[in-house]
From TrEMBL:
One of its GO terms (molecular function) is metal ion binding. Its cofactor is [4Fe-4S] cluster. This is Radical SAM/SPASM domain-containing protein. It holds the Pfam family Radical_SAM. SUPFAM superfamilies: Radical SAM enzymes (SSF102114). Residues 82-312 form the Radical SAM core domain. PROSITE patterns: RADICAL_SAM (PS51918).
Length: 438
């Protein structure tokens, strides 16, 4: 006996009946015969369905065995990832200071840096926690991480050596505002520090970017960042993040012609992120924040506009997260600030009352550490058809049991799928080595 998958999304568009499964990623058009078969299975009449239809629908994941608990499968996959000892993931804030003063930033820019003692503590912490690991990943963060470029060089050199000696796979990335990221700096990051990806923020075109991405002296930063991106995009993968608020959404459209005019189409990736009001400093911009449903609408329209210009946004095909949720709820991942304190979430960096430990003492706040690692999927998500794509959104939003807005995919996934349909033929798609032709 079979039942219809809880991860099916059915919708009609221009006379066509589409069916997508967020677990397998299969996406098809159903003819009338298959529609009848699916309805029969939904009514527990599997015995009336042709065997070929059963085979095809099962291969695609649109139907599952009656006894299958699809949620428990994801619970198992997530636990495998969360509690694996093969991986050590670190986000290291080299300093809490920054050369920018962005109004929506949630961090307090205090003069905190890694001195010689704390740098030694950091190296000891990393080396002592590499026992039995197969993978080490470091994300350089801040403040602005490149304010401590020499520290990144020293630590990377030593970690590279240790990982080579122990046959540990080591990778690194960076979150930077891009202002100090010249070609010479990028070459060092790539060749000496194994940094293969950098995320840089551009808040729309220069008109609004220069109002939010402000240097400490009050000047704008757009032209310098754009020039740096042009100089480095051939040697390091650049992902451009665009923070979208009520204040800049109209100007965000202007970023695509600028990137194209500067020869950056097909050379950088770009994604949009809504400005949200965290506690503290960013509460001052809460009025400009968007509700997720509103952001989802703008996101779809921005993607359509980019497509109309010929800017390559990529497939943007919705795929499941597998065992991943967030590093904050993973056992062997930490955010380390320049005071030598350990945190679980990026948004808590520098808030000493929320730390879970220190480089020297290890985990000292077990209650908070366990609260993060034992975070579970919110109840409202368990019967959602796109649960595998989101898995409860950001754990910080529901850590204390608060209500929260759903991921924007909840509101624009059909737009994403139709966009993909218009670009690619559905007659023969390969997803997880399963071919569907219905």
């Amino acid at each position: 006996m079979y039942k219809v998958s809880k991860f099916n999304l059915c919708f009609e568009q221009e006379g066509k009946n589409f069916l997508y499964n967020s677990h397998t990623g299969c996406f098809v058009i159903l003819d009338e015969d298959y529609q009848r078969s699916l309805e029969s299975i939904r009514e527990t009449k599997s015995h009336q369905v042709p065997e070929l239809h059963i085979q095809k629908l099962k291969e695609a994941g649109f139907i599952v065995d009656q006894k299958t608990d699809e949620y428990k499968i994801y619970k198992y996959m997530t636990n495998q990832s969360k509690y694996s000892n093969e991986y050590l993931g670190l986000t290291i804030a080299t300093t809490l200071q920054c050369n920018f003063r962005c109004p929506y930033c949630y961090e307090e820019h205090v003069d905190s840096y890694f001195d010689e003692k704390k740098e030694e503590d950091l190296l000891n912490f990393i080396i002592n926690n590499l026992e039995g690991r197969k993978h080490l990943s470091i994300t350089w963060y801040g403040g602005e991480p490149l304010l401590q470029k020499d520290m990144i060089d020293r630590v990377s050199t030593k970690i590279n050596k240790v990982c080579d000696e122990r046959n540990i796979d080591y990778s690194a990335s960076m979150v930077s505002n891009g202002y100090l990221l010249t070609r010479n700096v990028a070459e060092t990051l790539v060749n000496n520090n194994k940094v293969s990806f950098v995320q840089i923020t551009l808040d729309g075109g220069p008109e609004t970017h220069n109002l939010t991405r402000i240097l400490r002296n009050g000047n704008g930063s757009f032209d310098k960042i754009l020039e740096n991106i042009k100089q480095i995009c051939d040697i390091i993968n650049v992902g451009i993040r665009v923070n979208v608020s009520q204040n800049n959404v109209k100007d965000v459209y202007g970023i695509f012609p600028i990137l194209m005019a500067n020869g950056l189409n097909n050379k950088v990736s770009i994604y949009f992120s809504p400005v949200t009001a965290h506690e503290g400093a960013c509460q001052s911009v809460s009025e400009s924040c968007m509700l997720t449903e509103q952001f989802a609408k703008w996101e779809s329209e921005l993607i359509d506009y980019a497509d109309s210009l010929g800017f390559n946004m990529g497939k943007l095909y919705p795929t499941n997260l597998g065992g991943s949720v967030c590093t904050a709820v993973t056992n062997n991942t930490f955010v380390i600030d320049s005071e030598g304190d350990l945190y679980k979430c990026w948004n808590e960096v520098g808030k000493a009352n929320l730390k879970v430990g220190t480089l020297v003492d290890g985990i000292i706040n077990k209650e908070r550490y366990v609260k993060w690692v034992e975070w579970d999927f919110p109840d409202k998500c368990l019967n959602c058809s796109i649960f595998p794509l989101c898995k409860g959104r950001c754990p910080e939003m529901s850590l204390e049991g608060e209500s929260f807005e759903c991921n924007q995919l909840k509101y624009n996934i059909i737009d994403r799928l139709i966009r993909y349909f218009n670009i690619h033929s559905l007659s023969q798609q390969q997803v997880n080595k399963v071919f569907i032709d219905v």
